[in-house]
Design brief:
Two copies of one chain form a homodimer.
Chain A: E1 4-9, H1 14-26, E2 31-35, H2 42-49, H3 54-58, E3 61-63, H4 66-70, E4 75-79, H5 93-103, E5 109-113, H6 122-125, E6 130-132, H7 144-157, H8 172-188, H9 199-209, H10 215-239
Helix pairs in contact in A: 1-2, 1-7, 5-7, 8-10
């Protein structure tokens, strides 16, 4: 479990951060990261965390950018209640948990949760390699700390599936640089939809995001980008 | 799910009652019962329950006696973190959930939770037909509302096991009258351990508690008690 972190993006209530810390401690996860907490009131956090999880609050890392927070991770699993038509397929917690535990043998895994009011936007979801959705009755909006508890509980009780150990994957820092490179290449080859500028990037993110890319794969894709960009540039210079 | 109720015994914080109501609504349970809440602050409850679960708080039944609260139920499942040596075997939530869902087809099932600080005492546990324990890492003390969420979540996602439908069972009102009758009989036949007055009652409660007694079974046991008591009484009268 030492490779698994809970990441709360823009949490609103310090009580929820504290309750999430306690849930983490209950379920054997000791790394908590928050991005832009609305009210960083440590006293309120500690009250809900209880004495036993106080060190999780004290060692908690705070970031101002989600991308920076996620940079060292090799796999990001986002939690979402939304199931709009454009959304990617989501996994049930009990299906996702064994795979995440397997990945975490060799990789850093982030469990990403959105804010109480808005959840994760498309702009946050683009970092996610997989999505988890907690099944509910009609009322789908689960309290933030409750969502953290359910996901951590499922991961705690999951057994690693038998089978090959997942190799070390590229981290978000590396894959984001790759996506920036791909974006540059898309512009160069005219893969740009003015009415929907993210159309092609979303398509490629969804595809590559679930491919468990290793650092070598990232280098391969970036090599391809470089060659395409150079070719286009040379041809453009030649034509002028 | 209409036959399943969450029962909170002596909850301390109104926020936890509200959060429990929201969890119930998330997972399709609409009946919440509280016994002797320490601070019945409806405003704080409603804030945590959110608008969607406000009706659960408004329709919540409040009792001053746990036995009265449990009287109409046919099966009581208690949640406990303790695993002392005298304790009965406990079930994991995912093992208990399908059986409780099966029972609930024909019976009223209470999911009983103790207070934040003390959990369920032996005196509360005696009403329980089965016990559930949520597995944790080293720190076993789970926030009350989080415990409610995990149990409700497991019940929501459980499938009813294939097999015969459980028949209608005796309710707690009927079984408590039976235990009172048995207690009277135990005294009459000298089954009384002065050093440990509850010794025999605890033994018989643990045995009969897990037997899924029907009303006819209760009548049979009470008929036996009545005959023993009458026989003893007649012999005593005869001897004096």
């Amino acid at each position: 479990m030492k490779n698994i972190s809970v990441v709360l993006n823009e949490p609103r209530f310090p009580e929820n951060i504290g309750a999430a810390a306690r849930s983490c401690r209950n379920m054997g996860i000791s790394s908590l990261i928050v991005v832009n907490p609305e009210l960083p009131d440590t006293e309120k956090m500690l009250k809900m965390a209880t004495h036993e999880a106080a060190d999780i609050i004290k060692n908690m890392k705070v970031y101002t950018s989600l991308e920076d927070a996620l940079a060292p991770f090799n796999h990001v699993a986002g939690t979402t209640a939304r199931t709009g038509r454009d959304r990617r397929p989501t996994h049930a917690p009990w299906d996702a948990a064994p795979e995440l535990k397997c990945l975490a043998q060799n990789n850093r895994v982030a469990l990403l949760f959105g804010s109480e009011s808005k959840g994760l936007s498309n702009d946050h979801l683009k970092y996610c390699n997989s999505l988890i959705s907690i099944p509910t009755a009609d009322f789908a909006s689960i309290n933030l700390a409750q969502s953290v508890m359910i996901i951590c509980y499922e991961i705690f009780k999951a057994h690693e599936p038998p089978g090959p150990v997942e190799p070390k994957l590229a981290n978000i820092h590396e894959t984001e640089a790759m996506y920036a490179h791909l974006s540059e290449m898309f512009m160069a080859i005219g893969l740009y939809n003015e009415a929907n500028p993210d159309y092609w990037m979303n398509k490629i993110r969804r595809f590559l995001g679930r491919c468990n890319l290793k650092a070598a794969d990232v280098r391969l894709v970036r090599g391809l980008c470089r060659h395409v960009l150079n070719t286009v540039k040379n041809l453009q210079n030649h034509n002028t």
